[in-house]
Amino acid sequence: xxxxxxxxxxxxxxxxxxxxxxxxREAEREHGRRRRPPVPDWIVELGIGTGRPPxxxxxxxxxxxxxxxxxxxxxxxxxxxxxGLPACTHCHPDQHLDMLD
Length: 101
Prior knowledge:
The protein is built from 3 helices and 3 strands. The chain is of the alpha+beta class. It has 2 domains: 1-36; 42-96, no CATH class. A hairpin with a 7-residue loop joins β1 and β2. The model has no long low-confidence stretch (mean pLDDT 86).
């Protein structure tokens, strides 16, 4: 009988340890979510060279956006498209901005 109690106590300890580890991971994940900056609505991809001219407009979460970029608001995004800046062919920001011809 004593062996059975020890076995159950060991299993309960393992379960408690696992629950604590899962709770810790969740807490770390939530902390990371709170610290991460929000995804911008629109991104202008910038070229190389003097003035780093804008080369393309992307949605804020577009996987195809390059590393040289700056965040823009909705009005500036619409203005840039109207002035001839190309829209990304992957995320189609022009569709989200109601700018289709």
